[in-house]
Amino acid sequence: MDIFDRIQLDIGPIGKFQSMAEGNFVFPKLEGQISNHIFFNNKKLICWSYNNYLGLAGSSEINEIDAFAQQKWGMTYPMGSRMMTGDTSLHDEFESNIADFIHMEKALLLNFGYQGMLSVIDSLLSPNDVVISDKQCHACIIDGIRLHRGERLIFEHNDIDNLEQKLKVAEKIVQKTKGGILVITEGVFSMSGAQGKLKEICSLKSKYDFRLLVDDAHGFGVMGPQGNGTVCAHGLEEKVDLYFTTFTKSMASFGAVIAGKKEIVNYFKYNLRSQMFSKSLPMPIVYGLNKRLEIIKRAHDKRKKLFEITDLMQEGLKNRNLLSNEVDSYITPIYFNIKLEDVLNLQKELVYDHGVFCSVIIYPVVPKGDVIFRLTPTSLHTREDVDHTLKSYDAVFK
């Protein structure tokens, strides 16, 4: 069969809904300043869809930082990959600063989170190794594991007993292959809203020989005493082997970081193909990351406000039996067991009749059969935003 004929017959799990969904919950065109309110189809809405947890995106402070950096360097400097002609002292400075912040020996700045995670997994594992990941790990982890030519095991979401079963299987495999075991989980899961069971996973290290990689894209900037992440929040810096996070959420920027022991990060520096063969991050981005890190460290009031808004919203949803008790972060999913068409009708009613916008999430972003409204509170949201949204849900979900 011709490749183009095949893809026209099978347009994908989300693409098959494009006629009813495009412009609504996929590829919506949100306009206006990034904030708690946005414009959609010329209508002002309360927006619960940005991962702008600390409200940095669109703020005057961030705009001034970025404008200064753009004026000074432009987006072309430095040119080339970092290994060849794209390295600067500013890149080194940021890596040193963030390593200190997250209590890791060394950190390596990466261009993007998605390709960075793929490359970390690909460079870390040999065909003799076994990788074990949480069932709800992000797509970048899933796709990175697809590159692995050895055994791949998945444990049920946050199920420590099931993880232990997988570890027993993995041990038998590596006894034959002479390889190692890598466990991957997340600090805060982007869809379920649950924190990863990091303490329980780390406790298994006394019984099993494995390394632990934590993706903390949604925990960095918010969790921890200074926003230094979920690993620091639980005091596990000495037990987590590799720490990964991106800067597209709380930091409102680009890029990612992989951190851990000095010799391991140095290995990544010379072996991550996504970095060796990509242009270095432009200077305005790196300068902006350093400045954003300073803001994160002193953003206590923003974090306090985020958790206050989260508590208000989640308490209201639990009182309406719309939220699981397993949610223990600011990410707030409402699960549906009705047809997607009906969920889209609910979304349209919320948007056009009540002025409330939130993301509709379906497979393959979440497990097959799940459909959720995902709300992401920020420090910019107000009590009035919460009250209005809950009243809207009363009207639409009744």
Describe the structure.
This protein is globular. It folds into two domains: about 5-55 and about 300-395, Aspartate Aminotransferase, domain 1, CATH 3.90.1150.10; about 60-295, Type I PLP-dependent aspartate aminotransferase-like (Major domain) (Aspartate Aminotransferase, domain 2), CATH 3.40.640.10. It contains 15 helices and 14 strands. A hairpin with a 5-residue loop joins strand 1 (about 30) and strand 2. The mean pLDDT is about 95. It is of the alpha/beta class.
Biggest sheet architecture: 7 strands, mixed
* Beta content: 15-25%
Overall CATH class of the largest domain: Alpha Beta
- Going across the major beta sheet, what is the strand order? 4-10-9-8-7-5-6
* Pattern of helices and strands: HHEEEHHEHEHEHEHEHEEHHHHEHEEEH
Give the CATH H-level superfamily of the largest domain: Type I PLP-dependent aspartate aminotransferase-like (Major domain)
Which CATH architecture of the largest domain? 3-Layer(aba) Sandwich
Tally of individual domains = 2
Radius of gyration equals 22 Å
Euclidean distance between termini CA atoms: 49 Å
| Helix content estimate | 40-55%
Q: Which structural category fits the helices and strands?
A: alpha/beta
Uncertain parts:
none
Helix count equals 15
**What is the CATH topology assignment of the largest domain?**
Aspartate Aminotransferase, domain 2
Compute the average pLDDT. Answer: 94
Shape: globular
* Strand elements, count: 14
